[in-house]
Amino acid sequence: MTYGLILALVFGYLLGSIPFGLLLTRAAGLGDVRKIGSGNIGATNVLRTGNKGLAAATLLLDALKGTAAVLIAGHFAPETAVWAGLGAFLGHLFP
User: Per-residue pLDDT tens for 5-52?
Assistant: First the structure.
């Protein structure tokens, strides 16, 4: 592995580990989404708070963090885009 691939993997992981469901519900004053429903911080559990707009924003931002990782890494070195996507996926699953 070259340093570029490792950097892309770490960059993707850092972007993927941003917990948008938790951040948005706290910013909206709804408290900790992990104490509601399934305890997950994803869009479906945010929907259980009763705020459809917040759930849609969570879904969109969760999708965009992976997209951003791939596009940014691919802009600098196209061969690293897949590694950035893998990092974002792993960061989303294992923050």
Answer: 999 999 999 999 999 999 999 999 988 899 988 889 999 999 988 889
The CA distance from 49 to 30, in Å, is 8
Say what the pLDDT of residue 50 is: 84
Nearest one of 65, 70, 94 to 83, comparing CA atoms: 70
pLDDT at 1 over 80: no
Q: Coil, strand or helix: which one is 21? A: helix
DSSP states of 47-79: HTTT-HHHHHHHHHHHHHHHHHHHHHHHHH-GG
